[in-house]
Amino acid sequence: MNNFSFYNPTKIIFGKGEIAKLDTLIPKTAKILLIYGSGSIKKNGVYQQVIAALGKRKVTEFAGIEPNPFYETCLDAVKVIKQKKIDFLLPVGGGSVIDATKFIAAANFYEGKDCWEIMSKQSEIKEALPFGSVLTLPATGSEMNKGAVITKSDTKEKLAFHSDKVFPIFSILDPETTYSLPKRQVTNGIIDTFVHVMEQYCAYSVRNQISDRFAESILQTLVEEGSKVIKNPTDYDIKANLMWAATMALNGLIACGQPEDWATHMIGHELTAFYDLDHGVTLSIVLPGLLRVMKKDKLDKLAQMATRVFGINEGSRGERADKAILAIERFFRTVGAPTHLSDVNLDASCIEPIVERMEKRGWKLGEKGNITPAKVREILQNRL
Amino acid sequence: MNNFSFYNPTKIIFGKGEIAKLDTLIPKTAKILLIYGSGSIKKNGVYQQVIAALGKRKVTEFAGIEPNPFYETCLDAVKVIKQKKIDFLLPVGGGSVIDATKFIAAANFYEGKDCWEIMSKQSEIKEALPFGSVLTLPATGSEMNKGAVITKSDTKEKLAFHSDKVFPIFSILDPETTYSLPKRQVTNGIIDTFVHVMEQYCAYSVRNQISDRFAESILQTLVEEGSKVIKNPTDYDIKANLMWAATMALNGLIACGQPEDWATHMIGHELTAFYDLDHGVTLSIVLPGLLRVMKKDKLDKLAQMATRVFGINEGSRGERADKAILAIERFFRTVGAPTHLSDVNLDASCIEPIVERMEKRGWKLGEKGNITPAKVREILQNRL
Question: Which domains, ranges and CATH numbers included, belong to chain B?
Answer without folding.
Answer: 11-177 (3.40.50.1970), 183-381 (1.20.1090.10)
